[in-house]
Design a protein that fits this description.
about 375 residues, alpha/beta, Rossmann fold, 2 domains, 6-stranded parallel sheet, 13 helices, elongated
Length: about 375
């Protein structure tokens, strides 16, 4: 089957959708499919199977940043690539985002499969555009959502039924990694953009509380963003125990996970799924995370992780202390987490997506009403 994957966000920026498409493409190719990826590109795409079809601009959205190409003339580039490739199915990610995916949804002559990733609780722009978006959505032969939270958000606005297929994780890559050299001590790990939605200030405050009585405790931070300054006001003896690694490509994350002892998922909301939690669980890390939609579909509280109220540094610190101070609990959570992560492995996820491609191909393309 000839499969065109379409990503609406800057290919060379970090992000969960980009990681999902980047990992799905070669797995489809390994199963014998001919695959191309269309995406806006800020600088360059290293993969030969990526077709740059625009340049992104940064648009604030969902308390974060959306690097999209909303300029209508990029639609011609998308159409030209699709026409040359002649796919049997087009798999668009976030098809209602005014970027590459929407242009592909409007122009595809092949059946369309769509994956909805957004877990926002509200969106004024989305709501205002809903009548037009419903019309666009009627082109979709198969609708996928990465979680019930993502499905609920979009179903409320455009209706329809959704298959729940989570983002995939290369479980073996995280489980088998050798630890990076991050120094001595017990290490907490935070992974995510340092912005309002990801809860970095909450993680810093919780670490500061824990660090008072634990001189060997450290915080390892993967990511960058405006909230990095949240660590500036800490006492020197606490701030010096925070290691900022900056933005790290997903392929380089497993050794960092392997070097740490506990994962903090402090996001305050707006999460579609919780890929960072699954990666930590695959690595065998006990997880303490916010009890928010999306995250609660990954972590089962008390079984394979602990969930706490969002924006509550005290609750986050108390739960982390429970794990740090109870080796039996830590080992139990880590073991259950690895078992749980297996259900999100790419081997499982790719097979489910492949079956939905076959369903879309059988249904055929849909014209705009």
């Amino acid at each position: 089957m000839r499969v065109a994957l379409v990503c609406p966000y800057a290919w060379d920026d970090p992000g969960g959708v980009q990681v999902h498409v980047r990992e799905l493409a070669p797995r489809l190719a390994d199963r014998g499919h001919h695959v191309i990826v269309l995406a806006p590109v800020r600088d360059r795409a290293d993969e030969s199977w990526v077709a740059p079809v625009g340049r992104p601009i940064d648009v604030p959205y969902n308390a974060s940043n959306a690097p999209i190409d909303p300029r209508p003339w990029s639609r011609r580039r998308v159409q030209a690539v699709l026409d040359r490739f002649a796919p049997d199915v087009v798999h668009v990610h976030e098809p209602l985002t005014p970027s590459t995916s929407m242009w592909a949804t409007l122009g595809s002559r092949a059946p369309l499969v769509a994956t909805f990733h957004s877990g926002a609780s509200r969106s004024r722009l989305f709501d205002l555009a809903t009548p037009g978006l419903r019309r666009v959505a009627r082109r979709l032969a198969v609708r996928i959502a990465v979680s019930e939270a993502a499905a609920a958000f979009v179903r409320e606005r455009i209706g329809g039924s959704f298959e729940i297929v989570p983002n995939g994780v290369d479980v073996a890559r995280f489980a088998a990694a050798s630890p990076a050299d991050l120094g001595d001590g017990t290490k907490l790990l935070f992974v995510g953009r340092l912005d309002e939605r990801k809860g970095f200030p909450t993680a810093v405050a919780a670490f500061a509380e824990l660090a008072r009585d634990r001189p060997g405790l450290r915080l390892v931070v993967v990511g960058d963003g405006p909230d990095r300054a949240a660590a500036n006001g800490l006492p020197a003896d606490v701030g010096d125990r925070i290691t900022f690694l900056g933005s790290v490509p997903n392929r380089d994350l497993p050794p960092i996970h392997a070097a740490c002892d506990l994962f903090l998922g402090a996001s305050v909301g707006g999460e579609r799924y919780g890929i960072v939690l699954v990666e930590a669980m695959a690595a065998g890390l006990p997880v303490v995370a916010s009890d928010i939609p999306g995250y609660d579909e990954v972590v089962r509280d008390g079984l394979d992780g602990l969930l706490v109220p969002p924006r509550d540094p005290g609750a986050l610190a108390a739960a982390a202390a429970r794990v740090l101070d109870d080796p039996a609990l830590s080992a139990s959570l880590a073991s259950a987490a690895q078992d749980r992560a297996a259900s999100f492995d790419w081997g499982v996820v790719t097979g489910r997506i492949e079956a939905l491609y076959a369903r879309a191909a059988e249904a055929g393309p849909r014209s705009l009403p």
